[in-house]
Amino acid sequence: MGRQPCCDKLGVKKGPWTAEEDKKLIKFILTNGQCCWRAVPKLAGLRRCGKSCRLRWTNYLRPDLKRGLLTEAEEQLVIDLHARLGNRWSKIAARLPGRTDNEIKNHWNTHIKKKLLKMGIDPVTHEPLNKQAAASSQDSSSSPAEHLPQPGNNLDDQVKETNGVLLNSEENSSSSQAENSSGDDSLLLESICSDDSLLNSMWLDETPLVEALWDTTPNLENTNNNMSLLPSWEENCAWLLDCQDFGIHDFGFNEIEANALQTVGMKEEGH
DNA sequence: AACATACCCAACCGCAACGCC
DNA sequence: GGGCGTTGCGGTTGGGTATGT
């Protein structure tokens, strides 16, 4: 019944990655590109399953990842996107350059969920809790999933309502901007939320919002960060694949490699 | 200082989707 | 069209760290 787990082989290591393993993986990906994850551990000399390698790379080692907590604007964007997309973390992450689905999922479960509950908003339906209680007393058969906005199902109304709740919330009106939240981020969020075509494209899976983000605000972080000059990973994952044809150093990726390896180094020092 | 509890997040698991033959 | 292998995704867990008593 079902497929065999990929990690059931003897000798396959599990648990936290060591700096040495990180280095091996980074070096392998940067020289060979992302190909057939199943073969990566063998070729890279790692005693890990391919799945674990992929996860480690996409969630932690990728050179284009942002670090640190989500900014206020990013958080607001996540809330807004969640109201429309539900728990589709990968889709949400695709709209936030440098953020992973895992990171967003974790942040949602540990921070945003509580924040919304504190604000009296149901984190699942994005409806005010008291309103929902009243509604559920009228119709006890409706499930939370049914409250989620669906494409073509009065989306406009739900979007307006959701925005109303979120943008006029106590949290937003009374609290000042977080220290690390830039005005650019706020403008970005505003433009995204007010741009119907962008929102529609999310449902239709057309042009990723990431592209728009990178186009309109090419640098959400400080301008000294070289990585901000890179295209988004989802958009241009081929840049690494191309490396194997031309050699990564031809593209000046020494900096990237150094950056990635520096990440490992920082981790080594920190732990 | 020692212990308990809460919190955070990296990593794992299992299923679904996809692509190839 | 069905079988099989690979990758992607979302839910969950467990260990480390921070905070409270």
Automatic annotation (TrEMBL):
<dbReference type="GO" id="GO:0046394">
    <property type="term" value="P:carboxylic acid biosynthetic process"/>
</dbReference>
<feature type="compositionally biased region" description="Low complexity">
    <location>
        <begin position="133"/>
        <end position="145"/>
    </location>
</feature>
<keyword id="KW-0804">Transcription</keyword>
<keyword id="KW-0539">Nucleus</keyword>
<feature type="region of interest" description="Disordered">
    <location>
        <begin position="130"/>
        <end position="158"/>
    </location>
</feature>
<keyword id="KW-0238">DNA-binding</keyword>
<feature type="domain" description="HTH myb-type">
    <location>
        <begin position="9"/>
        <end position="61"/>
    </location>
</feature>
<dbReference type="GO" id="GO:0006355">
    <property type="term" value="P:regulation of DNA-templated transcription"/>
</dbReference>
<dbReference type="InterPro" id="IPR017930">
    <property type="entry name" value="Myb_dom"/>
</dbReference>
<dbReference type="GO" id="GO:0005634">
    <property type="term" value="C:nucleus"/>
</dbReference>
<dbReference type="InterPro" id="IPR015495">
    <property type="entry name" value="Myb_TF_plants"/>
</dbReference>
<dbReference type="Pfam" id="PF00249">
    <property type="entry name" value="Myb_DNA-binding"/>
</dbReference>
<feature type="domain" description="HTH myb-type">
    <location>
        <begin position="62"/>
        <end position="116"/>
    </location>
</feature>
<keyword id="KW-0677">Repeat</keyword>
<dbReference type="InterPro" id="IPR009057">
    <property type="entry name" value="Homeodomain-like_sf"/>
</dbReference>
<dbReference type="GO" id="GO:0000976">
    <property type="term" value="F:transcription cis-regulatory region binding"/>
</dbReference>
<feature type="domain" description="Myb-like">
    <location>
        <begin position="62"/>
        <end position="112"/>
    </location>
</feature>
<protein>
    <submittedName>
        <fullName>Protein ODORANT1</fullName>
    </submittedName>
</protein>
<keyword id="KW-0805">Transcription regulation</keyword>
<feature type="domain" description="Myb-like">
    <location>
        <begin position="9"/>
        <end position="61"/>
    </location>
</feature>
<dbReference type="InterPro" id="IPR001005">
    <property type="entry name" value="SANT/Myb"/>
</dbReference>
